[in-house]
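Progress report, Aim 2. The chain analyzed during this reporting quarter is listed below.
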Amino acid sequence: MRQILHPNSLLLIILLFLIFAGCATYYQQTQQLQEHIVHGRYKKADKLLDQNDQAREGRNKLLYYLNHGYVDWMLENHRQSNRHFLEADRIIEDYLKNYGLEALALVTNPNVKPYRPEDFEAVMLHYYTALNYIHLQDYEDALVECRRINLRLQALNDKYSDHKNRYQRDAFAHNLMGMIYEATNDYNNAFIAYRNALEVYQEDYQEYFSMEAPEQLKQDVLRTAYLTGFTEEVRHYEKQFNVDYQYQPHPHGEVIFFWLNGLGPVKDEWSIRFTKVPSPKEGYVIMRSNQLDVSFPVYIGDKSKEEKDAFSQLRFFKVAFPKYVERKPLYDQATIYAHQNRFTFERAQNINEIAFKTLHDRMLRELGNAILRIATKKAIEAAVDQENEKLGTLVNIVNTLTEQADTRNWQTLPYAIHYTRIPLEAGSNQIKLETQSRRRSKQVHSYRFEGQKDKIYFAFHHTPASYFPGHRPR
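Predicted structure tokens for the chain:
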């Protein structure tokens, strides 16, 4: 005789299937795309993205457009790349909370909601948009994108009443702005931008991201101050940098070369244990994490009797939260060779470090909501258990399995950005970029530029090869 499953058992099987189908991290779900990118198969990556209709329209559509914008940038389809980035920008600007999904996330996990970017990710799309405009020699729109970086950072941090991001100003945005102004011979605004970049490196980046101002930036500050006729400023920075500045013109122009190295971190999950401790205030329960050395009050004065009873019975629970896993670049050094001279790169932006610090700042802001999510699950579980013990057990299983962190992130960003400036000679200049790795033979890439009076060229190269979590590179 055929056995018929009890409805509760059938419901459990369906729920388990749905839950385990979504247990893979976003990195695991998109590993084929990542493999194409790390091995430089950008046409295959582009085709894979084009075929993914679900990603284009689903809750991960922002990541779809960010990744597609990057792939087209690498393929030098700069107009198409900007169309993708502008669509991503529109999604971020128009991001409105879907309260149905917010309620569902409260009793499941944040993965059910459309992806909302980390603050630094919302900023980085303006970098790529600016780089596309530079390729198209549209310096005016490139400057607009640089300004938008700082406006977006200001708007993001204005939202936070406490636990503000340490990443509140972007030094490299000001630095890039100065380069673009200088390329248009606007030395006055170039000096202002370089000076602002120097300030942010010295006041923010050195403390929060262990990054000092590039030596090249110091030269750029002095040069543009000199060209603008700011004699007092030249003396001020000579004293600050302990140098005796001598202006050296580049009559045949120069190249500003950017080396984007590696890939930024990917998200995984970790659990934070909270224990209930006595509360000095009536109507509150206090949940404490010794791991983080923090306590969070949860107000239950407006809850129903059943919910209050559920909260009173809480002893401890775990909260799932995303964490970053670093992907170290495979290539650890790059050098430019031009007309028998050697030029080394300096780091201008440490995206990996910014990612880790930004997520930590967000965690401190959002743990209260995460605690409320778990507590709500426990309250529902206790209320159901009073009505039906077996169904209460089922809810307990579902609550445990659905407590997952959101492991989505923009995974095609570089680990770090470096740059150097190369003066050109008259006529044709051959420039060679040599990238070096302890595990692989060096790679050489050749470029050619024509020396022109007052001309500044911009060149970019991304070396995405990285040590992926879980395995060593081939």
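Residues 253-474 form one domain. The mean pLDDT is 85. These observations will guide the mutagenesis work planned for the next reporting period.
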